[in-house]
Amino acid sequence: MALPDPLPPAQVRKNLHRMANLTPDQVWEMYQIERKAFSNFYGQIDEYEAAVGMMHLGYHVGWKPLVLIHNKRTLRKYQDILDIDIREMFPEEGPSWERSLGYMIAKKLGNFWKAVSGELKDEQLREQRRELA
Length: 133
Hints:
mainly alpha
């Protein structure tokens, strides 16, 4: 499987500019969370690794995109592994939230949260997709 073409330099600069700039205190807090979680962790190591990755990504995209990226059970597992609450630790939208295509579409739909919860009917969703296209 071939890797996708690299991003043009201008896009890389734009992405770098929009990344979260963590304070030294935030970096230290994240480091302490990782150490504590690892010392307490037992189980499949890839779950710990994924939880840490989610935490790092959360600063950049925010907790709302994370809710779309992961299902509730997975988020709960990662929060339990790290002993964190993503809604307290991260902003709703981080500076790179637009890198989450799913969340960007959700914002355009306006009531995506209703769609996710099943409140919207299939026909309403199809109509909204047509309007976006």
